[in-house]
Design brief:
The chain is 59% helix and 0% strand. The protein is an all-alpha fold. It starts with 5 loop residues before the first helix and ends with a helix.
């Protein structure tokens, strides 16, 4: 392979050997700008273009800003018929919602329009409850219930009508405090409605450690968003999630899948911060 110059060859020695290799040796923030420069020098030369695309793809897996910075270069230097390596890098970059929002027109010029999108919280098809139907449903559930589909709608209907009964409150307590996970995230704001502000410190202490969890973090972030301005004490933690340059470590079968999970958490964190501030959470 012909490299542009010796400096690039020397820098490349610290980069992964292929698109599937680990990027830990070069993933520190101090290497980010240097990596962009290397990609910019490799892509224009057909002899080194695929190598540049592989590095660009690995950069997108590592740094959140990489897709926005590198997608235009991939389109500009990809050629009239992009190679598989360039196409793979474009698909990876398009996982970033920020990149597709900024460069969607460029992607369309290379025929890449069906790019992956981060999933959103599913809300369609949720049933509605009134106090009577919600009470009847809970009366058929055990006191130590551990899972409950549509818990926000069920307990929300009851709380709209008045205080929970002792049995209903015990059920909500078990859903909120007994096990960490999705149910805790969605039930925490319901318990806050029931118990009032005195419950807030305990709830935030329970929720904050799970915000980065790729399996359930979105549910905890959604719960904080439902709390609105009352969740203001966790704004620093949410903002830190948003402002980090490297991706949140997650575990998936592919680097693209891991990137997508980080994008989902980022999107949820942005929505949560917006909900807290829009509800009067600004200092």
């Amino acid at each position: 392979m012909k490299w542009p110059d010796d400096a690039v060859v020397g820098a490349d020695a610290h980069l992964p050997d292929g698109p599937g290799d680990a990027v830990a040796p070069w993933s520190c923030t101090g290497q980010e700008r240097h990596t962009y420069a290397i990609v910019a020098r490799l892509l224009p030369d057909p002899a080194s273009r695929d190598r540049g695309a592989e590095i660009a793809r690995a950069a997108c897996h590592t740094w959140r800003a990489a897709p926005v910075r590198l997608l235009p270069l991939l389109v500009l230097h990809g050629g009239p018929e992009p190679s598989p390596a360039v196409t793979d890098a474009l698909v990876t970059a398009s996982i970033s919602e920020q990149a597709t929002r900024a460069h969607g027109d460029l992607l369309a010029t290379v025929g890449l329009t069906s790019y992956p999108r981060p999933r959103g919280t599913r809300r369609a098809g949720r049933p509605s409850y009134d106090g009577t139907s919600a009470a009847e449903l809970l009366s058929a559930k055990p006191l130590g219930i551990g899972r409950l589909n549509h818990a926000p709608e069920i307990f929300g209907a009851l709380l709209d009508e008045g205080p929970l009964t002792f049995r209903q409150a015990a059920q909500l307590y078990n859903l909120t405090f007994r096990w960490p996970g999705r149910m805790q995230g969605v039930c925490a704001p319901l318990w806050l409605r029931h118990a009032g502000p005195r419950a807030l410190p305990r709830l935030l202490e329970l929720m904050t450690p799970y915000l980065h969890d790729y399996a359930v973090g979105e549910y905890y972030l959604e719960g904080l968003a439902r709390m609105g301005h009352q969740a203001r004490p966790v704004l620093p933690a949410v903002t830190a999630m948003i402002e980090r340059r490297t991706r949140i470590p997650v575990n998936d079968s592919t680097p693209d899948g891991e990137m997508r999970l980080d994008e989902n958490l980022l999107k949820a964190a942005l929505a949560t911060r917006h909900a807290i501030l829009a509800d009067g959470g600004a200092p």
